[in-house]
Amino acid sequence: MDTSSYVEEKTPEINISNSLKSVFDKFSRPLTLRDKSSRVIYSNDAAADFLSVKSVKDLNGKLDDEIDCPLFNDEVANAEFDRQYKRTWQHELCFATLEIHPNALNRPFIYRKMPFYNDNMECVGMYGYAEDLKVYSLNDYIKGQMPGSLLLNKPDDFFTERECEIMFYRLQGLKAKDAATRLNITLTTFNNYIQKLYQKAGVTNIDELKEICTKLNYHRYLPNRFLAKESIKFDDSNT
After folding, report:
1. Which of 138, 143, 151, 142 is nearest to 213 (CA)?
2. Beta strand 95-99 with 40-43: parallel, antiparallel or unpaired?
3. If you average pLDDT over every residue of the chain, what do you get?
4. What is the average per-residue pLDDT within 38-47?
5. pTM (2 decimals)?
6. What is the mean pLDDT of residues 133-154?
7. Mean pLDDT of 24-48
């Protein structure tokens, strides 16, 4: 392979003004700023407390897998985090994920990500902050087989919001009857919806639908209607 014309892309340098640092320092929510290598350039004291490290010195200048904290001890989770970081600056996109990591943190949280621009309005990285999930309890949610990060923004427009609601529980492994009960519709109505989804996706069974949804990242999308519920259960118990 001819590499003579190959030039490695240089990570843009990020400079933070003292006034902006002052704002970030006073921000009550855990906040971090990353460059395009996914390296932490800045973090506030709230971020250090949130991640259970001694100080911001344990975060700044490091990649996730170099940070000694429970949240970043999972290679699979770190790979997903990195994918999300890159999505933010590559597409200059603001989006939020619902993070559920019971082995690392004792509560779920929402992580909001936004592109970070320099004085020339060039996107040079991303900043994000965490906030507690206050809209409903996830005690039963955590018992399920959910991915660690749940998208709060629909990946694209291939499936409608209603279609996402219909297939949500099936994508998480519930049987059709249980999914219909939780959606408060009849099993016949639910199955009719699912058949239409099969036709739209060009598949013939739930396993093929799951494969398509995984490729499109719909298996991570949490439909908005579920944020209004007090709890979401994924087991068959009534407790």
Report:
1. 151
2. unpaired
3. 83
4. 95
5. 0.59
6. 55
7. 94
